[in-house]
Amino acid sequence: MSNIAQILNLLSVVSLSLFSGAFLFIAVVIIGFWQAVEPEVFLSWMSDHFYRFPALMVPLNMIALLLTITSFGTVWKSRPNSRISLGISAVCIFVCTITYPIYFAGANAEFLNRSIELSQIKDAIHTWEIWHWVRTGLSIVALTFASWDLLFTMNRGDSSLFAADKPTSII
After folding, report:
1. What is the distance between the terminal CA atoms of the chain, rounded to a whole angstrom?
2. 4, 68, 76, 165: which has the fewest C-beta neighbours closer than 10 Å?
3. Considering the chain, what percentage of its residues have pLDDT values greater than 90?
4. Is the pTM of this model over 0.90?
5. Is 51 helix (H, G, I), strand (E, B) or coil?
């Protein structure tokens, strides 16, 4: 069971890395672009290109969430020392996930439906950015704790992803 838990933890780390990396790209590059253009250009860009965000981010989010929760579940009995780090990781990615229905679904709809005044765009993008950095931080914390557990487990010698079996004696 320990190897399965470790493989799931590794997959969780990989998926959280991809998810966090995509969030960082949005935070640094995309939001910077949004802030640099005129409000009308921003709204046009949103209606032309925003559909790509959920097409990429929702699957990455769901995969990271499910793998992290599954990884946490597999260590519950077999590796009690991993409960805290993977539990924190699972909670952080869950909270990150629920920011979408709490804030982003409505904010994105306002942009896409153009139901926001042009004079309010700058402030709305700033609010979107703050919320986005919160969820980016949560995803990075989730990644950090999942990575910590993976490294701690491998350094402790509980099991190895790269060895077929531990040596056994023939007595």
Report:
1. 25
2. 165
3. 79
4. no
5. coil
Which two tokens mark 29? Answer: 């590059």
What is the band of 157 on the pLDDT scale with cuts at 50, 70, 90? Answer: low
Sequence-separated (6 or more) residues with CB below 8 Å from residue 146? 9, 12, 13, 16, 68, 71, 85, 86, 89
DSSP conformational letter for 102: I
Helix axes 52-78, 83-99, angle to 10 degrees: 160
pLDDT in tens, 21-38: 999 999 999 999 999 999
Give burial (CB, 10 Å; 0-12/13-18/19+) of 134: middle
Calpha distance 170→30 (Å, rounded) = 60
pLDDT in tens, 51-77: 999 999 999 999 999 999 999 999 888
Structure token pair of residue 8: 């799931």
**Alpha-carbon dihedral sign for residues 48, 49, 52, 58:** negative
Residue type, 110: E
**Angle of helix 39-49 versus helix 121-156 axis, rounded to 10:** 50
